From TrEMBL:
Origin species: Acipenser ruthenus (Sterlet sturgeon)
Name of the protein: C-type lectin domain family 4 member E
Annotated transmembrane regions: 47-66
Domain C-type lectin: 144-262
Classification of source organism: Eukaryota, Metazoa, Chordata, Craniata, Vertebrata
PANTHER family named among the record's database cross-references: CD209 ANTIGEN-LIKE PROTEIN C-LIKE (PTHR46746:SF9), KILLER CELL LECTIN-LIKE RECEPTOR SUBFAMILY F MEMBER 2 (PTHR46746)
Matching CDD domains: CLECT_DC-SIGN_like
GO MF term set: carbohydrate binding
């Protein structure tokens, strides 16, 4: 006899016992005082519990049948092994063994996280070591004076260019010295192209040029004959072939141009007593 049948029989027995007791009381064989309100409440509660048990058993059996059908219909999908990318696992292991210890890392955790995932995805790291100090940039970025620079090949509007730089943990370049201006101009000319967005615009207030970090422009390298202010709010870019130093120009921010992104280089320190530093494998 299955569980459902046993519960059904128990409910039936409880029901008829309660009915019989009520009839017996009606014949007067037992005093009306013995059939107290407490006993009547107990009988009703027992019947209610029995009914609930039967309902629960029915629900459980229904769910069991449903699960069984789902398993049979999708057996291959649920029982098939999950594919494992062993090559990707090996890359993760290599990166874990190649990264320096916490005590030897002086950069931000977010920078290390970025480098870690880039390495896992197969990108190489550009590094420059001087003594015990190493500075790292992502592949495709150029290292100069503790900064990493990326010269794009695709073209976008100024706002889209800034958003793209931010997605790479950087910003459109902020040029702070003549040395930096010359380096960027020379590198951009080698990369090819005629116009690159830089992180300078007068979008907030016409004629008031500010960098992407909202600091005001102190010194500009505007191309000769190009006024630094205009009738409409505009964004700044550089045209390297025109001049190695004074080559900034202004244009409508919605125009599509290449871009120059910058971010701080990640600094790592070699341990003085470690001849085979793991940095060599990053």
């Amino acid at each position: 006899m299955n569980l459902k049948a046993k519960l059904h029989l128990a409910m039936k027995t409880i029901f008829f016992q309660s009915v019989g007791e009520e009839e017996e009381d009606g014949d007067g064989s037992k005093s009306l005082q013995s059939a107290s309100g407490k006993e009547s409440l107990y009988k009703k509660t027992s019947i209610l519990l029995a009914v609930i048990c039967c309902l629960l058993v029915s629900i459980i059996m229904g769910l069991s049948v449903l699960c069984s059908r789902m398993t049979q219909g999708n057996g291959e999908e649920y029982n098939s092994p999950i594919p494992v990318d062993y090559e990707q696992e090996e890359k993760v292991d290599e990166v874990n063994t190649g990264l320096p210890t916490h005590s030897s890392f002086t950069g931000n955790c977010s920078d290390m996280e970025s480098l870690f995932f880039e390495a896992v995805l197969g990108s190489n790291i550009t590094k420059n070591c001087n003594g015990q100090m190493c500075e790292l940039c992502l592949k495709g970025w150029v290292l100069f004076n503790h900064k990493c620079y990326m010269f794009s090949k695709d073209i976008m509007s100024w706002n889209a260019s800034q958003a793209q730089c931010r997605s790479k943990r950087g910003d459109l370049v902020k040029i702070q010295s003549e040395e930096e201006q010359k380096f960027i101009s020379k590198t951009a000319q080698k990369k090819g192209g005629f116009y690159f967005w830089i992180g300078l615009a007068d979008q907030a207030k016409k004629g008031e040029w500010r960098w992407v970090d909202n600091t005001p422009l102190r010194r500009g390298y505007w191309r000769q004959g190009i006024p630094s202010t205009g009738d409409v709010r505009q964004c700044a870019g550089m045209n390297p072939p025109s001049d190695s130093l004074n080559n900034w120009d202004r244009s409508a921010c919605r125009a599509n141009s290449r871009r120059i992104c910058e971010s701080a280089a990640v600094r790592l320190i070699h341990k003085a007593n470690d001849d085979n530093d793991n940095l060599a494998r990053v």
